[in-house]
Write a structure and sequence with these properties.
Length: about 325
């Protein structure tokens, strides 16, 4: 009888952790995790304000979480420690410039999960004016028949657009293109990012995703380090403070599609040329010393090119043959 119960428990657990429709866990082919040392991250949050949540929202007598403070949310991941938001807690982050919608993911949120299964989740919202926030369309396909316990397991492929999908050192990516049609939001000039802890209690404190599904994540976590542990937010596409004064101009080049040498006007000599693939990863960085750039080393495909020189910058699409 005991053996049958163990087999049933094993099968039930694996049923609840069945592979979902989204990018899989870190370490599995096809995952979308971004390492903290990735070359595509060019900046980190410079300001952070937090609003603590309770260690257990259903037992407020325990008090608020205490681990970390607002300074722990700034700078590079795994540098300053983490700040624990607690149940329903929030963090608002600002940056040395404005985040914009470029090719692929535009920023990544880092948590400190110690495995690829113990995942504490958070909603992510952005603002272009510091007052009105817009939430990324979050998806959670985790089973809700049984509450995931304090140290329970979450299958990463069942969640999307929720921070905390990946373990420490690996950020969860967010693409502003998902919010491109939101009235009142300028996805080319994001000034603030808000992180809001998900209270994953499936019975009482119900948080739902963008499709109305109940979100199930570890609960309760009645510790000083409870809730989402914000490590850092790394930025992939950001216009530096100095670049805000720069003028966006047209880049005329030929041929396009191009096989080897991409020719352009001589005014772009000494400019920085950055080629990104469709997923937003930097593939080639060159400083032009002539009126052409040799891109023969790039595989065939579509690339997004960003060029910067002095007070001018340009963005365009390049097709590599």
């Amino acid at each position: 009888m005991k053996k049958k119960l163990l087999i049933f428990s094993f099968l039930w657990t694996n049923f609840l952790l069945a592979q979902g429709p989204f990018a899989p866990a870190w370490g599995i082919e096809g995952n979308s995790a971004i390492h903290k040392d990735s070359s595509i991250i060019i900046d980190w949050a410079s300001q952070c304000a937090i609003k603590r949540g309770y260690m257990d929202i259903l037992n407020p007598s325990l008090g608020y979480t205490t681990v970390g403070d607002s300074t722990y949310g700034i700078g590079k991941a795994q540098t300053n420690g983490v700040v624990s938001l607690g149940d329903g807690g929030e963090a608002i982050l600002q940056f040395n410039g404005k985040i914009y919608d470029g090719p692929g993911p535009d920023f990544a949120v880092f948590e400190n999960a110690f495995s690829d299964m113990f995942l504490e989740l958070a909603f992510v919202e952005v603002s272009s004016d510091g007052n009105n926030y817009f939430r990324f369309p979050a998806h959670s396909h985790s089973d809700t028949l049984i509450q995931i316990g304090s140290f329970g397991r979450v299958e990463a492929s069942n969640i999307h657009n929720l921070a905390g999908k990946y373990p420490m050192n690996y950020g969860t990516p967010f693409d502003l293109a998902d919010l491109s049609n939101q009235a009142g939001l300028d996805v080319q000039n994001i000034t603030h990012i808000k992180i809001i802890d998900v209270v994953g209690n499936v019975d009482t404190m119900i948080n739902r995703d963008s499709e109305g599904r109940i979100i199930n994540d570890p609960y309760p976590t009645p510790f000083p380090s409870g809730g989402f542990d914000l490590d850092a937010v790394g930025v992939i596409h950001i216009t530096s403070t100095s670049l805000l004064e720069h003028k966006s101009v047209e880049l005329n080049f030929y041929p396009n599609p191009v096989e080897n040498n991409m020719h352009f006007d001589g005014k772009w000599i000494d400019a920085e040329f950055r080629f990104y693939n469709a997923n937003g990863y930097l593939q080639l960085f060159e400083r032009a010393i002539n009126s052409f750039i040799d891109i023969s080393s790039l595989p065939k495909g579509v690339y997004f090119l960003e060029v910067l020189k002095g007070s001018s910058f340009a963005r365009t699409k390049v097709i590599k043959l």
